[in-house]
Structure formats: C-alpha cells, structure tokens
Amino acid sequence: MRLTTFAGRMPAAVAILAAFLAGGGAWAQGRPGGGGPGGAGGGPLVAADPVKLEIFRQTVPVLGRLVARRAGSVAARVAGAVADLKVDVGDRVAAGDVIAVINADKLKAARDDAAGLAEQRKAQFSTGNATLAKVKGELQRIDALRQSTAFNKAKYDDMAADVSIAESRLLEMRAQVRQAEVQVVQAEQDLINTVVKAPYDGIVTARNTEIGAYVQTGAAVVALLNDREIEIEAEVPTDRLTGLAPGDTIDVELDDKTAHTAKVRAIVPQENPTTRTRTVRFTPSFGKTTKALAANQSVKVLIPAGAAEKVLTIQKDAVLLRAGSTVVYVLKDGKAEERQVVLGAAVRDRLVVKSGLNAEELVIVRGNEQLRPGQTVRVAAQG
To answer: Is the pTM of this model over 0.85?
Structure first.
C-alpha cells in the first residue's frame, strides 16, 4: 500500500487530534452486555485494530486541473446555409451522430454539371480513339505499297505525322476524362459533407451557428468535448520533478474531497521561465465521486517530496487525550493497557506513530473513551 501526505502538514499531536478525532464515546455502554467499569459480562465491549507497518512518502500538494484529451470545434467542410441543427448545448453525442445539415441544392447542381462534363469527355475520348484507328489504318495501307511504284513517300510521311497528332490528342483526352472523373468524386464528397457528423463521443458545449445562417468552409458549427477521456494537467516545480517519472503512481484529491490515484503519462520538456515549472500530464483512475467530472475542474496532485519509508500507523479513533498526553489503549491479555504515543503526520484516516507502539499490536478503536488502565475488556471485532 502506498501512502502519501502533505508537506507542511506535520502538526503536533493536539492539532492532529483536533482535526481527526470523532465522537462515539457511548459505543461500549450502548451495546447489550457491554456495561461500564465494573459492569456484568466480563468488562466493556470494544473493537480493536492492529498497528500497521506501511510504506509512507512525504508529498507536496500541487494544484492541477482536469483536461479533456479530445475537445474543440466541429467545423463545416463545405460552405452553405444551415438547413438543420440537430443538437443543443449539453446534448451527448456518439461518434458518427448527425450534428447539422447544410443545404445541398447548389452542390447537387455542381455534381450534375461535373457528371455531364465527364460524359462529354468520355465521348470525345471515344471519337479521338476512332480517329487514331482510322489514320493508323491509312498509314498501314500506304506502307504496304512501299515495294511498289505506287508508294508515295511524301504521303506516307504526312500520314505518319497525322498518326502522331492523333495519339497526342488521345492522351490529352484521356487526361481530361480523368480530370472530369475527379471532379465528380469531389462533388459527391461535397454532398456527403453537407451532413456534419460528430467525429468522436462527447458533449456539445456550444452552438456556433443557427438554422438559416450561412457558414463558410472551416467555420465552427458546434464545440464538442469528450468528458470520458479526461487527464490531469499540473504545473510542477522543477525541483520536485526528481521524484516523478512516467509510469509512477501518485495520489490525487478532487475538489469534492474524494481521493483517487493517477499515473504520470508525460513530463513536457518545456519550462516556464517565470514560474520555473513544467507541465506534467497524468492518467487518472477515478473511483466514486460526489459530482460529475468537468474540464478545468480543480484537483490536488500530491507530488512526492522525498524517498519512501516504512512507518507505523494506527486508526485515528484509537487516539485519546488524557491529562495533556496523547495515549492509546493496547489490548494485552484481555486487558486495556494505556500507552503514551508520539504521533506524526495524518495519512487519510490513519496517523503515523513515531514512538510508543510496535507493529501488529492491537489498539482499541471503539469503546475506549471510558476505559481505565488495566481494565478487563471483551473484544467484539478486529480490523
């Protein structure tokens, strides 16, 4: 188990107890057969929990924010009047859902013109192909007379030139056919692009146009944010980066006070000369939260401030203030043994013990408020 705490939050025992001790003093007396001192049933009923040896690392809190990995404007790919707008702010869409429709009348006419031009180019190519075949035939007939007195060298040369011209024209016509076919494909694609679709899952955060408005190519139609691919971004002081490396797991705390973990994904190699910080991106693993996550929501990132060490920890409910001393009751041979302890930092709902206890000793965490040193107790539960 990896534990963290905040640097600078190493209060004295009294301050820690003021922040963490909770009520519950009537627990032992409120159970059937529990009884107070001298009561029936072999002593009061208590619950115990072991002193744990855990890995602890001092941390420094850095304020970060949640950022969406995918967010931005969904743009129109063709110009035209908006015929329909199917989403509103706050709507959730899936990749491929229709967001808006742009009037396609002009583009349909352009597609038809391109298709007609392509047919014309193909007809011209067919004519040119037939012309080439004709002049080639005439050239072959003249060439067949080469060994006779009827052979006319000048006429042969003229016909050979005609063949070359016809071949060049045919190549030009083939290129024109291909150009016309590309224009048809482009016109068809423009028609497809009159339907604006969501490029990824997300929530519409803004509408940048309305039905009837004219949009240019590249103009924003809506703003979209994928709230299910969230990262944490924090500006970390450069002198704290030595404790971070891609893949490291750290603790984070949302502004609703819920605790979670995150892994370092990347440390951006660019330093802010004013703040002497570098941007670090974390991939979070969120558990339950009390409110929905949102981009730019604040988050506390606990950056390691030193090497990890093994420490003893106890539940906060085990600690009592008696005559100005910090004490706990240790369960020993069925009796409550009072022990003075020196406490360290708070670690979630547990406290670091600097001295006074050993690992695996059982400390009383419920029913301890009215106990006397050496008093016999009954253990209801452990852990």
So the answer is: no
